Amino acid sequence: MTVEDVRACAHRLDLVEGDTLPPCGAVPGAAPGVAARRLAALDAQIDRLTRLRERLAARLEGGSAAA
């Protein structure tokens, strides 16, 4: 979780009994989607890095073919 994720859920912390957190999604009134948003952000980063890697590899292959 990020600070942004905690901020999004902080207003519901008073619904948690005791010092332990309930299983994921078990807090009454909890908005679903924190994990889904994190996964989507990771997927976007992976896609971006994959495209960057492919461009770099293509440049390296093009450079070695010309040498």
From TrEMBL:
An MF annotation (GO) of this entry: DNA binding
Highest taxon above the source species: Bacteria
UniProt keyword terms in alphabetical order: DNA-binding
Protein name in the entry: MerR family DNA-binding protein
